[in-house]
Amino acid sequence: RSVGAQGARVFEEPASKGLWELVDVRGDGWACTLPDRLVDLHSHWYNWERKVLLVRGIPFDATGTDYLVLAGLNSKCFEVGALHREEPRHKLTWMLGRLRWLVECPVSLVRALERLEAPEFVHCVVGNDDGALVVSLPRFGISFRVVGGDVMSENCRGYRLARCQQFSDTMPFFSGYLVLERVDE
After folding, report:
1. Any bridge partners for residue 67, and if so which?
2. What is the pTM of this model?
3. Which of 66, 98, 134, 135 is buried most deeply by CB count within 10 Å?
């Protein structure tokens, strides 16, 4: 919205009287732990008073918050659901206990999904509601919830990721798919 001191891009949120500065998160420090997808496909705005980074879409009209990062040594990146993306930033910080946060994905799960998506675009979140691990492929709009030993589809209820990810009767070079199997209830 405006240009601050020394040419920095800033915007002020009247509801919280907060000043947010556009920052480059590439390089050293706690921000280098963010997944590549969040670094490359989003803009990053930092509030120096609160030590909070908000991550939102790059288009100029993308005002919603996709992720909120508490900065520091024990930084944590929270996923803001679609229902709350347009909430004022100060309100989101009060809701942190109800938001899901990013965690490192288990290697075995990433390997199972990498036939469809590059590992750097697979991300995992955990929430306070039930503590279940949710694995997302955001570019495809696909997500799975790990329940016990099963990786359950959140998009196709009653289906899970099959343990064997290879069809025996497909073309040999066709590999860009995931196999789901029906769960007997």
Report:
1. 55, 79
2. 0.72
3. 135
